[in-house]
Structures are given as structure tokens and as C-alpha cells.
Amino acid sequence: MGSMSWIHWVIVLGVVALLFGGRGKLSGIMGDAAKGIRAFKDGLKDDTSSESADSKATGALPRTEAEKEKS
């Protein structure tokens, strides 16, 4: 119970290799995740700003049938 089996050592070595192996693999992974989150937030901002611009352009009330036919 006090010692670790060979499977545990393989898992530990794998985690250490992932964190510290190569040139900044962890920072590269986190950078990619940050870019994805930033792109998602920018996409949400674009959607809400275009919706608010559309509502300002058409007014607060919905168009009537007569107004729709004139356009």
C-alpha cells in the first residue's frame, strides 16, 4: 500500500513529460485555449452589437403590415 506500482510511475512520468517536455508545450496548449476563448467572446460581442444596431435602426416597436409593404 505504501509503494507505487509501475503503472502509477508510467502515469507520473507521462504527466511530467507533458508539462516539462519540449519547448513550452503546456504554454502552447494554454495559448491555443486562450485564443479560442477570446475568439468566442469576440463572436458574442459581434452578435449582440449587430442585434442592438438592428433594433435601433428599425425602432422599438415592430413594423406593421403597411410599413412592411412600403419597403
Automatic annotation (TrEMBL):
An example molecular function term from Gene Ontology annotations: protein transmembrane transporter activity
A Pfam family that the UniProt record links to this protein: TatA_B_E
Entry GO terms, CC: TAT protein transport complex
One of the protein's GO biological processes: protein transport by the Tat complex
Residue ranges of the region described as Disordered: 44-71
InterPro entries (UniProt xref): TatA/B/E, TatA/E
Transmembrane segments: 6-22
UniProt key word Nucleus: no
Keywords: Cell membrane, Membrane, Protein transport, Translocation, Transmembrane, Transmembrane helix, Transport
UniProt-annotated location(s): Cell membrane
Membrane topology (UniProt): Single-pass membrane protein
Record text on subunit structure and interactions: The Tat system comprises two distinct complexes: a TatABC complex, containing multiple copies of TatA, TatB and TatC subunits, and a separate TatA complex, containing only TatA subunits. Substrates initially bind to the TatABC complex, which probably triggers association of the separate TatA complex to form the active translocon.
Physiological role: Part of the twin-arginine translocation (Tat) system that transports large folded proteins containing a characteristic twin-arginine motif in their signal peptide across membranes. TatA could form the protein-conducting channel of the Tat system.
Similarity field: Belongs to the TatA/E family.
Protein's UniProt name: Sec-independent protein translocase protein TatA
Organism: Caulobacter henricii
Gene: tatA
